[in-house]
Amino acid sequence: MSLQLHERYSLKPFNTFGIDAQARLFTEVSSDDQVREALALAAQRGLPVLVLGGGSNLLLTRDVEALVLRMGSRGLRILGEEGDQVLVEAEAGEPWHPFVQWTLAQGLAGLENLSLIPGTVGAAPMQNIGAYGVEIKDVFAGLTALDRQTGALREFNLADCAFAYRDSLFKQQAGRWLILRVRFALRRTAQLHLEYGPVRQRLQAQGIDSPTPSDVSRAICAIRSEKLPDPAELGNAGSFFKNPLVPVALAERLRAEHADLVSYAAGEGQVKLAAGWLIERAGWKGFRDGDAGVHRLQALVLVNYGDASGAQLLQLAQRIQADVAARFSVHLEIEPNVI
Ligand code: EPU
Question: How far apart are the C-alpha atoms of 317 and 315, rounded to whole Å?
Fold first, then answer.
């Protein structure tokens, strides 16, 4: 099938912040051949390429003078089983949460803690998505990507991907790899991760003593729905900042002043701080300037009440960064890709 091209096309429906920026050229691709065709077309027209999945980790601060290539490839399959382990593969354009539900419906455990995360399968490895004690690196089996420099396909195993907290080789080498399909090693017998307090509490409150992966998924959906705004109702890109790693000495100094500082041991003389706590303490939770704001229930999430521009949201983020740095001597790193 040949490509459907759209000139000067609004990206509003294609980014969860709901920013009305325009793409110079837009196309949705559904196969490897279409990906190659789109890349060739961009080269021919001298346009850079911006690859979009669900647009859920993206802040557009201006029109995009590029070919915006939206990954729309679909397909879910079980590749094989060995003992308890089941290898599944999903095409990059598959929406993440329905994929998680599909694995649960097949009786497969491993992705339940990652329920209800917006975005697509192909974007998930970019920032090693994680929630409630699990990151995709914990269940990752491999992926196939296209090298945009050479046009060759390459297989990546776990070690190749350099996964770290909200980070990967693909994020480090932004613009080089186009992820086509991802494989996960799931299990017939669940090894649940319930160490995150609120998940355990919710299951207990429901009287569930020996939860199934689907029970955990439902509990996590409920927790997320309470705290995190639904992008369909209120534009946002999830956590706007990473939880910062700081030296133990700084965390101790801060704790001397703020007994309720939220922190997690991170090894090697470092401590991870809850950015949401820092931002809330600095007084920004629920703040609103025009249509750009800080969510009233989760200070880590910036929201678009309607017509905020990306530039306005970025300016708000920078004000928060400066204020948190001044008050706590902590630098907050922005999490989504800022274009
Ligand atoms: N907190 C506050 N005020 C706030 C928000 C949080 O004091 O406004 C405190 C909470 O009380 C809690 C701590 O900060 O003690 C942690 O909060 P929460 O459990 O909500 O998690 P988070 O650290 O804010 C991270 C991820 C989320 C993920 C949750 C659960 C990052 C940047 N964010 O948020 O991921 O869902 O943990 O695992 O690591 C995302 O990346 O988009 C995302 C939503």
Answer: 5
